[in-house]
Amino acid sequence: MKYDLVIFDLDGTILDTLEDLTEAANRVLREAGFPAHDKAEIRRFIGNGAANMIRLAVPDGTPQSVRERLLARFREYYMAHVNVTTRPYAGIPALMRALREAGAHIAVNSNKPDAAVKALCAAHFGDLVELCAGETPDVPRKPAPDAALRIMRAFGALPEKTLYVGDGDTDMLTAGNAGIDGAWVKWGYRDEEDLRGLAYIGAFESPLEMQRFLLS
Question: Which of 90, 137, 172, 184 has its CA at a distance of 20 to 30 angstroms from the CA of residue 145?
Fold first, then answer.
């Protein structure tokens, strides 16, 4: 096992959260009298935090005060419905179990609100995930490396022994900013063209393919 620590993104990487995110976003948009979006559109809005998703989802020119009100409502509604249809991608629990058995630590770093990250990791992965870090007021969102570096310090992991796994450009930028390897998963919410010009060690079709690569 080349890595002592594997840090996973959450949305689109280990959990399919799209249905619940779409329902929550559209609920608050409709309440405010704004047009709703289909899942393909919401998929493009995910990855840089809830505030950015709301900014992209509302019509151009929407006042900041309105966006802030919608963001607060979104967070309230989503936390109450965070795990309705959300499920792990097939093969993810097995991948995590294999990595743990090989001696690697596993953590999750997401731009999703911290409470939601912790709730979802506990519900779906239990003690397979040792440390979760979501969005908090005192830590810059990805692609800032701050949360990833904190996780590395918590485990005493060296940069060359740490891997960041994600589905988007934000994740690969986070890996680069933290000075660690990045691995891109093809089953998530971003296309390969979104990663143009970014470095990563591999593009993986499935968790099983990643498992075989990491444990070979």
Answer: 90
Three-point CA angle 41, 9, 54, nearest 5°: 35
CB-based contact 185:13 (threshold 8 Å): yes
Q: Within 17-128, where are the H helices?
A: 18-31, 39-45, 50-57, 64-80, 92-101, 114-125
DSSP letter for 139, please.
Answer: B
pTM of the model: 0.95
Instruction: Please give the residue range of the domain that contains residue 48.
Output: 18-80
The answer on 194 and 96 residing in a single domain is: yes
Q: Are 107 and 8 in contact (CB under 8 A)?
A: yes
* Predicted confidence (pLDDT) at residue 38 exceeds the cutoff of 90: yes
**Do 104 and 141 share a domain, yes or no?**
yes
142-181 residue pLDDT tens: 999 999 999 999 999 999 999 999 999 999 999 999 999 9
The letter for the amino acid at 36 is A
| 175, 115: one domain | yes
> In this structure, what CATH number is given to the domain that contains residue 59?
1.10.150.240
Say whether both 211 and 109 belong to one domain: yes
| Spatial separation of the C-alpha atoms in residues 95 and 102, rounded to whole Å | 11
Closest to 115 (Cα-Cα) out of 178, 50, 60: 50
Residues 105 and 65 sit within 8 Å (Cβ to Cβ): no
Number of domains comprising the chain: 2
Q: Which residues are catalytic?
A: 9
Within this chain, do residues 103 and 75 fall inside the same structural domain, yes or no?
Answer: no
Question: Whole-angstrom Cα distance, residue 69 to residue 18?
Answer: 22
